[in-house]
Amino acid sequence: MRxxxxxxxxxxxxxxxxxxxxxxDRRRExxxxxxxxxxxxxxxxxxCVVDGARDLRSEYVVSIAGTVRLRPEGTAxxxxxxxxxxxHDCSVEVLSxxxxxxxxxxxxxxxxxxxxxxxxxxxxxxxxxxxxxxARAAVNRAIRRAMDAQGFVEVExxxxxxxxxxxxxxxxxxxxxEPGSFxxxxxxxxxxxxxxxxxxxDRYYQIARCLRDEDLRADRxxxxxxxxxxxxxxxxxxxxxxxxxxxxxxxVEVTGRDPGNFRRITWHDAMERFxxxxxxxxxxxxxxxxxxxxxxxxxxxxxxxxxxxxCLVGGAxxxxxxxxxxxxxxxxxWGAKGLAWxxxxxxxxxxxxxxxxxxxxxxxxAEAAAVIGALDARPGDMVFxxxxxxxxxxxxxxxxxxxxxxxxxxxxxxNYLWVVDFPLFEALTAEGDPIPSHHPFTMPHDDDLWKLxxxxxxxxxxxxxxxxxxxxxxxxxxxxxxxGSVRIHRxxxxxxxxxxxxxxxxxxQQRFGFLLDxxxxxxxxxxxxxxxxxxxAALLVGEENIRxxxxxxxxxxxxxxxxxAPSPIADAHxxxxxxxVVPPA
RNA sequence: GGUCCUGUAGAUCAGUCUGGAGUGAUCGCCACCCUGUCAAGGUGGAGGCCGCGGGUUCAAAUCCCGUCAGGACCGCCA
Length: 585
Known about the structure:
single chain; alpha+beta; CATH 2.40.50.140; Gyrase A, domain 2; 8-stranded mixed sheet; 5-stranded antiparallel sheet; 15 helices; 22 strands; 27% helix; 24% strand; RNA-binding
């Protein structure tokens, strides 16, 4: 039907008779006997000189046969990759007419999201979306190549599985054959990939679809894809190596650029210095420890278990008072009692303090000097302090740091960072039971295992929170790209974990029985990881929303304007499934 | 569950703070003109439930309340 692709033709093709197919991108009609048609396919745009264009409109699908020639002197278009040539002596066949499109296909206008998604099949024609979908395919291709080269076997795992109470909210599918029972859609293939290890697969991977019924964000959809990895007889650093190889290969495949070093930071350092377990280390403004400075302070606002601060260079003049008030309000929304701010000035006041404004008047001159020194602040800077429980201080200042200094996530840099040594438990419930920070099969850190396995019984309460695990995350420009861990393969350790978590043996058997059963029959030591491919693809093409690399995404409320999902189903359908809809109260 | 921003012509926006005559602009669309444009150009034309509902007012796109939709974020996402 066609001999060539629009964007692949060049001066070397001059004189060739070709047939190209595509969409009418733009037409410039000069008279009854001269018009230019820009014909677009997925490779680019080609100018075709036609006799008349009265019966051609935007987005008509046409086939144009003609002869390639160099454009006449002085009419080349350097902005176009095919700008030196054109197709002439054209005969045009309309393959499919089109109504005027509901929105322009140019790259200049930001079209309303609902409109784009309702007509996604048109939106996808844009060069940007064509590039993104192809980049995403390139990511998958590179990953498959890298995993294959490292001896991994691609194994598919089921989509209809049993619901387990851990983790995110499940999407659920009613069973027809067993009314009242439900399948869950996988939040991840976690259990199955561990079972492949018991099954002797040795090295498993999958580009897996995962589903979680949690609120959507720029970097979160209900449905997403991850590179899921698990390997036997390996340690943490082996896994980091496998994943680094795959992600680096994908980066090169899409961007042609070396991703550089994948640096490492401990979870503890990430939290203390950046207030986040997914630190964006592309910029400074690190959180600085100020607690000792205020150990004996008279200033009541700083009489707290923890005081930290950040310094905004030039902030004293750059930030209007109204903006500062907004920041204070934001910090209060984030859970802080308040946000202390002060400007650094040139000439010290009567008590010798170079801090001014805000809470400056409550600080002694020694405290002021120490704060300035610790934050390395200069005149003209603004310093922000939060005093509270340590966790809260880190959290609030971490968010404030991002608010004040974060570059766009898609600024073209690739800052890969491994965060290692996550704590085994992230917090205690009101009843004092710990909550696993990864999942209950995560191996404790080698250096902390003795604490957990002590013959006197496990520690309790706050001491538990000091135990580190062999869990790790991969972060790119402040986005969590994925996480993984070394799994527990020792029965005694697993039993101790359940004991600490307050899960009785019979309950553990009920919830995770099939995995625990499997582990009775010879489980190899194993470890794994999962990489969010939507996020990776988005950042590699410079998008700040994963919708842009998903062919048919959902809106933030979880709807699909194209198919109108979710939608009610017929009563007969409900009846067959043994379901009845309860009207909202 | 919560906070914030945005809904005006097919599209993108201005007008809203400070209520007042007929809601404008650009692009697109339709017709005609135009032989080297490339975001072609010219002339003319059509096109509006100012998201929806209620309230205040002599008078509401504009103020107030509610609601729906989209977006960003907090919570949530083992």
